[in-house]
Design a protein that fits this description.
The chain is built from 12 helices and 9 strands. It is α+β, with helices and mostly antiparallel strands. The protein folds into 2 domains: 194 residues, Jelly Rolls, CATH 2.60.120; 107 residues, Orthogonal Bundle (Arc Repressor Mutant, subunit A). Strands 1, 2, 3, 4, 5, 6, 7, 8 and 9 form a 9-stranded antiparallel β-sheet that branches. 31% of the residues are buried. The mean pLDDT is 89.
């Protein structure tokens, strides 16, 4: 619990054998979570934790269960955490920000408690959890969303460098000064972010094409009237980089900006000949679908349909 004393190594040990007590341990050590045991009759759990500056390193062991951070719990909470979950034993399934990943065998994934997430742990699991105050992480919200729920291989690349550091933090007292501990906490956070960025880039390169493209095109169609509709806005919505977005369209012989322009022109064409829009001027129709420059709209429309907007409306009026 929050007031549980630490041993000589600075380790706090907390145990529970009931759902209520276990929920209290998790709340006090991390954040409030909704907990659903897979078999409530066998519930038991323990958390061993220690602080290294503003980084908390914890080892969580319990029976199979699902932890959920709901929107209600997020809105009711105060301080939030940036977290790394390393599955040392058993299997973990993490969902956040529209992505899901399965973590096992010493691999890990990041999550952010300021947004809803779900951790489902199965088997004889052991989860090492490393948390920093959210405000200590120098990433914007879109940058954080890009990195969550993506598996980082603990045996390759940056993950291989980071794994032994995480193991040491969870197992032994570092013997550092307060200032040294704070610097170490920041350095581990930076290395964690680097490992996640590499994994996220790799995951983006492996994204399926046609289905993802179709979802993005539907989003564009539904937001044609948004003047802020642009590649960066779309990439943020789907938690991918703008580079990946452009590459996805290019694979199908398209460009993002040209697609937006074509769909906006088509929306304007339909509105110009619709009986329900006859009271709108051509400038109003263009503005309604994201064209703020009347002269640009007129040139683009004429090039696309072979007649000026005014002429097209006269020729095709219902």
């Amino acid at each position: 619990m929050a007031g549980t004393p630490a041993d000589a190594r600075g380790v706090v040990v907390e145990k529970a054998t009931s759902l209520g007590a276990w929920a209290d341990v998790i709340r006090d050590r991390f954040v409030p979570l909704q907990i659903a045991p897979h078999d409530a009759s066998e519930l038991a759990g323990s958390v061993h934790s220690r602080l290294v500056g503003h980084l908390q390193a914890a080892v969580v062991v319990s029976t199979p269960q699902t932890f959920t951070r709901t929107r209600r719990l997020v809105s009711a909470s105060g301080a939030e955490l940036w977290a790394l979950g390393l599955v040392e034993a058993g299997t973990g399934h993490l969902e956040q920000d529209g992505r899901a990943c399965t973590v096992t065998g010493g691999d890990f994934a990041l999550y952010d408690t300021s947004r809803p997430f779900t951790w489902s742990l199965a088997g004889d699991w052991k989860l090492r959890v490393y948390t920093w105050p959210r405000e200590a992480i120098t990433l914007t919200d879109p940058e954080c969303r890009r990195l969550t729920a993506t598996v980082v291989d603990g045996s390759a690349g940056v993950g291989r460098l980071l794994s032994p550091v995480l193991t040491h933090l969870a197992q032994a007292h570092a013997g550092l000064s307060a200032a040294g501990s704070a610097r170490l906490a920041d350095e581990v956070a930076e290395l964690t972010i680097t490992a996640a960025l590499e994994a996220a880039h790799s995951a983006e390169d492996c994204q399926p094409g046609p289905e993802h493209l179709r979802r993005i095109q539907i989003f564009i169609e539904e937001h044609l009237a948004d003047p802020a509709l642009a590649p960066q806005r779309i990439a943020q919505e789907f938690f991918i980089s703008t580079r990946t977005l452009h590459r996805l369209f290019a694979r199908h012989g398209l460009t993002v900006n040209a697609w937006i322009k074509t769909r906006r022109l088509e929306a304007c064409r339909r509105a110009l000949v619709s009986p329900g829009s006859q009271h709108l001027s051509i400038t109003e129709v263009a503005s309604r679908f994201g064209f703020s420059n009347p002269a640009f709209f007129s040139r683009a429309f004429t090039a696309q349909y072979g007649a000026s907007p005014r002429r097209y409306r006269v020729l095709h009026r219902a």
